[in-house]
Structures are given as structure tokens and as C-alpha cells.
Amino acid sequence: MSATLIAVPARDPHEEHRAATTLELFFDLVSVIAIAAVTAGFHHAISEGHGIEALPRFVFLFLAIWWAWMNFTWFASAFDNDDAFFRILVMVIMCGELVFAGGAGYIFATMDFSFALAGWIIMRFGMVTLWLRAAFGNPRYRATALCYAAGITLAQAAWTATYSVTAPGSTLFYALSALCFLIEFATPPVAESVKATPFHRHHIIERYGLLMIISLGEVVLSISHGFATLFGEHPAPAAAAVSAAALVIVFSLWWVYFCEKEHLTTVRQPTAIIWGYGHVFIFMATAAAGAAIAASIDVATGHAHTASSAVSRYLGISLAVFAATLWVARDRVTALPRHLMLALPVMAAAFLGAGLAGAPVPVFAALAVAMVIWRAPGRTSGR
């Protein structure tokens, strides 16, 4: 096999007009399927009054889906040469992720990872091979790339051992899984401390923005279900009213998230690490808000086994986490006037208070509009 086929050169981190590729967008499509399945499971758990019991499963699976996406995204930003071998390896990763995504609903219900483990091994094979290509073709980044390859391999070995010795969903399972995630999350900071990979800042900002759109899509999907109740022999105007209020919420989340073009202000650690890792709570909270809105629609149509006030707690906490984490990841390190710097922390407290008080969805819509007016007056990221 020729050196040209094995090696993959580093990309220029200052390359102009760097945009997401169609292969990256194709990769995101697999993430859509997995996120939708996990969010649907959480929605039904909330509607049935078992949201608290299902929350650890939702968090666990969302972390796993996001981590697969994040591993590929940051590698591609630094070393995507778009040759045939790169494309094939990405498709291998996509194959493994689809094995996992196809069973996401079943996994959520049972925490049985028998076939999902096979999917993860397939994904790891693709990612490790990509990092070995980067090591072979870039002497400057060889130690970093080998560190990534070793960390991913160690993490997969730990997961395999965890699945082999614990019962699905048991306390021991979650305890050992936490250790596995610790290995996962420690790998990038350790590897980047050797020598930072040449990721493209604006490309990463765009990729994260695209995953945010996917997360917002979970809210939009829930909203569409509410409007769907207007059709048929027995319309449900109350459910449509919930969807109308939720539409204001999702528009507001989009507005506030994308109001700053320079979302990641520097490539330096630890700012880039906090921004990159912190986003999982933004994505997760947005998807959880979609689950809560879907459950609110179930309440309005009489298909839920819980009270509206109970569902509101999930919506309020989700929106509070969104606002608070966006402040930590972005606003905290952005040069803003003091009154704008205070907007998201104060609104996070307001969302949390409304949720604990069991406020209806229109109250959250009003608070979301207030968040936009306060945090993003006349600010647009597209100019």
C-alpha cells in the first residue's frame, strides 16, 4: 500500500471559505436518527410519569451519540483530505453508528447493548485507523495522533469489559460507565496538550451550529405533532395552542444561540475544551425541551399519565440548563456589555423558577421572548 494512500496531511487551520462537506452532512444524518430515537423514549417516559427514572438513560445515550459525532467532527476539521480512503473509513464509522442508532429505542428501554457494542467497535476501528493515518502523514502531530488512537482503543476496551461484567442498567453498570466516559473525555485534553491539532475554528463553529439545528429539530418535530391534532374528526385546539407557544420557544432558542458569529473566540485551551465539551449540555437540554413539549401535548390531548405541572418541571429545567450552559461556554468569555453578560444567568434562574412553579408552556414562551429581547437586541450572526 502506497504512502499516499496511508498518510493524510493536516489541513490549514486558516484556510479561507472552509465549510462543512456533504460527507459531514451525511454523517450528521445518522446522528439525527439516534437523537430522535432517544428523545422519543424520554418523551414517552415523561408522559407516563417516569421521567426521573428515565433521565439517567437519556443522559447516558445522548452522551454516547454526541461523543461519536464529536470524535469525527474534530478529526475532520484538522485532517480531512477527502480522498477515497478517508471517505470509506467515514462510511465505516457511519455503518457502526447506524447499528447503534437503529437500536437506540430498544437500548433506551432495556439498556441492552449487545449489538450496540458491535456497532461501537466498528466505529472505533474507523476512528483509530483515521488517527493512525494522521500519525503516519504528519510527523509534527504524530505523538498527538497516536495518543488519540491509544485513548480510543483503551476506552473501547473499558466499555467492552463493562458490558461483559455488569447487568444492563445496574448501579455497577453506571458506575463503571462513568469511569469509561472519564477515559473518553480525558483523551482529547491529554492528546492536545502534547501538540494541539490544527482544527479550523470557523469550521468547528459551523459544525456545532449544524448539530444545534438538529437538536432544535427535535423541538420542531414535537411542535408538528401538536398541530397535527387539528386534523381529523376530533381536533384538539388546546394541543395546537401548546405547539404555538412552543414555536415561540424554539425560534427564541435559535435566535439566542446564533446571535454571535464568533461563537468560539479562541483556539486555546482550556477555552476551546470548555466550549467543545460544554455544548453537549446545550444540545441535550434542547432535545430534552423537545421531549417535554411533546409530553405537554400529550397532557393537552389527554394521552398522558402525569400532570401538566410535572411536565413543566422538565421544560423549565431544560431551558435553564440551555441558558446557563450557553453562558458558560460562550458568553462568559465573550466581550459583552455588562447588561448583556447578565442576561443568560438571570433568564436561567427565571426558567428554573417557572418550571418548579409548574408554569404552563405560554409562560416559558414569554420568558424566551424576554431572553431574546435582553440578550440579542438587533444582533445577527449572518452579517
| N-to-C order of helices and strands | HHHHHHHHHHHHHHH
Low-confidence stretches: none
Characterize the biggest β-sheet: none
Corresponding CATH architecture of the largest domain: Up-down Bundle
Radius of gyration: 21 Å
Question: For the residues shown, what is the average pLDDT?
Answer: 93
Shape: globular
Number of domains: 2
Structural class: mainly alpha
Strand content of the residues, in percent?
under 5%
Number of helices: 15
Give the termini separation: 47 Å
Q: Give the proportion of residues in helices.
A: over 70%
- CATH C-level name of the largest domain: Mainly Alpha
CATH topology of the largest domain: I/LWEQ domain
Tell me how many strands there are: 0
Task: Draw up the topology in text.
Blueprint: H1 3-6, H2 22-47, H3 51-79, H4 84-102, H5 104-110, H6 114-137, H7 142-165, H8 171-194, H9 201-228, H10 237-257, H11 271-301, H12 308-329, H13 338-341, H14 343-356, H15 361-375
Helix pairs in contact: 2-3, 2-4, 2-5, 2-9, 2-11, 3-6, 4-6, 6-7, 7-8, 9-10, 9-11, 10-11, 10-15, 11-12, 12-14, 14-15
Describe this structure in words.
- The protein has two domains: 21-194, no CATH class; 201-375, I/LWEQ domain (Up-down Bundle).
- It is 76% helix and 0% strand.
- The protein is mainly alpha-helical and 383 residues long.
- 46% of the residues are buried.
- The chain is built from 15 helices and no strands.
- α2 (22-47) runs antiparallel to α3 and α3 (51-79) runs parallel beside α6 (114-137).
